[in-house]
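DATA SHEET
Item: assembly model
Revision: 1
Owner: S.N.
Input lines:
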Amino acid sequence: MSIDRRDFFKVMGVTGVSLVTGNRLSASNAPEEKQEFYGILYDSTRCAGCQGCEFACAQAHGLPAPSFEDLPVAGTERKADETRRTVINAYQTSKGEAYLKRQCMHCNDPACTAACLTKAMLKNPEGPVIWRGNKCMGCRYCMVSCPFDVPKFEYHSPNPKIEKCDMCFDRIREGLMPACAEQCPTEAIVFGTRRELLTEAQRRIHNDPGLYYDHIYGEHEAGGTGYLYLSAVPFEELGLNTNIQKSSYPALTKGFLYAVPSIFVLWPALLLGIHQATKNNNDNEDHDE
Amino acid sequence: MSNGNYIASKAVSGRSTWKFILSELKPKGKLLTPFNIISIPVILAGIILIVIRFWKGIGSITNLTQEVPWGLWIGFDVVTGVAFAGGAYVITFMVYILNMKKYHSIVRVTVLNGFLAYLFYAGALLLDLGRPWNVINPIIGNSFGTSSVLFLVAWHFLLYMIAELIEFSPAVAEWLGAKRARKILSGMTLGAVIFGITLSTLHQSGLGALFLMAKDKIHPLWYSEFIPIMFFVSSIFAGLSMVIFEGSISHRVFSDQISETDHKAHKNILHGLSRICAVAMFAYFTLNVLVFVHEKRWGLINTPMGYWYLTEMLGFVLLPMILFFMSYRKRNITLIKAASVITMVGIIINRLNISVIGFKWDAVSHYYPSWMEITVTLAVIFTEIWIFRWVIRRMPVLRKAPGWKDEN
């Protein structure tokens, strides 16, 4: 049996924690079940654009129900905002009209979470990225950082919240499915562990290569996301950003953050050294003058 | 002297200190100056707008959108303001680390300027926070987001303000006539300076690093992995240009505070600063050219954003750099002042290009600051100038310290 990277870090982490908080360890010493990320597979070829997910989402999170006058129509892009966490859009594609659901992608290594200075944005071990109001100071750096422009801010409230899909984290904890996945009548939205869903997506493409465009959006985008997309056409025809880099976004700031401790150690020593060196120099000069 | 007497005299001196502070709070000088006539209505309007903002939400007075969550208040007040406040760490580096005594007479005013800039711009940040009551969360330790660049920047703002306060505190002690406190506080100066320079290096570059994750949102002519280094290098000449600009105004407005020798030495100081500006700008310009060539960005030049990039680089970096070099050789003060103003405009353009103008440049609808955002920004700047003036008129910042300071 070999020890993989994940386990290695876990052991290191447990050791570190035990050094800091001696007696709280008992819980984490118990053999822990390996928690896999949950995710959602959205298959555009199965989506009928009924907006059932929008209604279910609004109901599950106490948001206003979608208006019946605001239907997905090809040519107009509806956007998620502070009153709706998910939207269905219609697109005229090379293979006819198709629908696409938009919401938080629940990245494996989310930019919003790395950006958050209070850990209000949190990537849970179960996979969902959630927002915690008691931590958030409303700086909106998560919105600046998110490559998918997901977090939405209540600009017109004195006590503003960030609205975004949380993959129905409360329901997952109760053993239920996310509301949208439960509601979907055509099984276009499937909930499961990310690993199972990737296998399922690959199986679908393999079994029907004529129907599917050979790419799973979210497998590698932004370093991998919890939401996975299948479609009949290239994803840019469905309004998804295909220029998203294939590695994680927080990695972009790693170099800078790693430099911080070295500068904190080196700079003061260097500055003190220069100060001592020039002090004597100046004394000499003063004497010369 | 008995113990009781000693305590009594202490109490008397304590009471007189408070009386002194109260008497100092009263305004000095004329009330109806042009600056007051403009600034008072703006500050009042700003206060009203701030009340509306906390009552109805940020969207009630700003034009921010879901796509552009940071506007003028972050892009100008914080990102640009902090670059201008960079003069404090450069001047303290020159005076206390390199022991360039020539610049000693401008240390206090520069540090005061830097401290007030941080105080007010960090204060302006609170206006932009949606949930400002949670601002203590990253400080008190119940939730440290240590992977965040903003976490680093927030802590550095706080620590640097303390460092600058310590650097400035001897002037406060001299104002209050507290001899013992002055001795202790001035003993802490070198430590505060070293700490302050280290913090400045990291948070000046950190402000640039904030935008590293917005890779797909910032126009490629302004985005590169070197943004942190660019921000740091440009903060050197941004800060010094501010010192030159502020110095030439102070020498006119507060001429009664400045001794004849300091007045004469000032020209010499400006020449020295202009040379440092020129060299720093040369480094900055070269860095930009290297990034441009290395990333093969020729294809982006023949677009509106490309022309705008050329305007910034040639008109507001290369041109003032040449002016600084020329002014040093010709010993021309007017040229220095002109160059410093052009440089400052260039810094404003550069910081806004990254944080506002080039941010989501390809979006359908663009962000423009509302008149209310601009008014609040002006109110913040005017209030800062009021406090600056108040301190200058009372504490030994520009004028010589009282004679007793060398007694010990």
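QC remark: The radius of gyration of chain A is 25 Å.
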